Amino acid sequence: MARAGGITNAVNVGIAVQADWENREFISHISLNVRRLFEFLVQFEATTKSKLASLNEKLDMLERRLELLEVQVSTASANPSLFT
C-alpha cells in the first residue's frame, strides 16, 4: 500500500511540475507580447512626433503665406488705384 501512495504522490508532483511549466510558458508569452507592444508604442510615438513636426512646419508656412496674402488684399482694397 505504501507503494501506491508513493506513485500517487509522484503523479501529483508530476502534475504540479507540468502545471508550473505551463504557467511559466504562459508568463513568458505574456512578457514577450508586452515587450513587443512596448516596442511598437515607442516606434509609433517616434513616427507620430516626426509626422506632427513636419505637419507643424507646413502649417506655419501656410499661415505665413496667408498673412502675406491678407496684407496684399488689404493694401489692394485700401488703394484700388494701384490696379487701374
From TrEMBL:
It is found in: Cytoplasm, Cytoskeleton. Its main location: cytoplasm. The keyword Ligase does not apply. Signal peptide: none annotated. GO terms for biological process: actin filament organization; cell motility; regulation of actin polymerization or depolymerization. One of its GO terms (cellular component) is SCAR complex. Residues 45-79 form a coiled coil. GO terms for molecular function: identical protein binding; protein-containing complex binding. The keyword Cytoplasm applies. Keywords: Coiled coil, Cytoplasm, Cytoskeleton. Belongs to the BRK1 family. This is Protein BRICK 1. It comes from Nelumbo nucifera (Sacred lotus).
